[in-house]
UniProtKB/TrEMBL annotation:
This is Molybdenum cofactor biosynthesis protein B. Gene3D superfamilies: MoaB/Mog-like domain. SMART domains: MoCF_biosynth (SM00852). One of its GO terms (cellular component) is cytosol.
Length: 165
């Protein structure tokens, strides 16, 4: 397997490092899978702060994948899709569809309120998943783990991301 450099962004107005179970799950799991944690940030749910952090990672030669957790629901402050979708060069429509399919099996029709999405910008993959630890586990175990593994056949995303410098 070819390890990737993955950055994790938690979008929350209330979480701190000590209480960020979703971000910690993603960090622990990606490292256990053989990838490298390139960076980890917790940011308030603010469109411009989200864009600034992710834009920096998109421009970096050292970040190949960004996984965000949080800000994908329907509450007044949830703004991850509005913040990040304009940065995409290409959208990965199937990610949100597939995430909601797997989520339906776990939480029923409440999955309709998930605005999980993904895209590619400057050959950097960006996955935006809900903020619950359960949603992060679902996204990782059913989609991300295999699609970020160079050995997954017939295809995966590894050949589409930029090479680190």
């Amino acid at each position: 397997m070819k390890p990737l450099n993955i950055a994790v962004l938690t979008v929350s107005d209330t979480r701190e490092l000590a209480t960020d179970t979703s971000g910690q799950y993603l960090c622990d799991t990606l490292v256990a899978a053989g990838h490298h944690l390139a960076d980890r940030v917790i940011v308030k749910d603010d469109i411009y702060q989200l864009r600034a952090i992710v834009s920096k990672w998109i421009a970096s030669d050292d970040v190949q994948v960004v996984i965000t957790t949080g800000g994908t629901g329907f509450s007044g402050r949830d703004s991850t899709p509005e913040a990040l979708q304009p940065l995409f060069d290409k959208s990965v429509e199937g990610f949100g569809e597939l995430f909601r399919h797997y989520s339906l099996l776990e939480i029923g029709t409440s999955t309709l309120q998930s605005r999980a999405l993904a895209g590619m910008a400057n050959r950097t993959l960006i996955f935006c998943v809900p903020g619950s630890t359960g949603a992060c586990k679902t996204a990782w175990s059913t989609i991300l783990e295999s699609q970020l593994n160079s050995e997954t056949k017939p295809c995966n995303f590894v050949n589409h991301v930029k090479s680190p410098k």
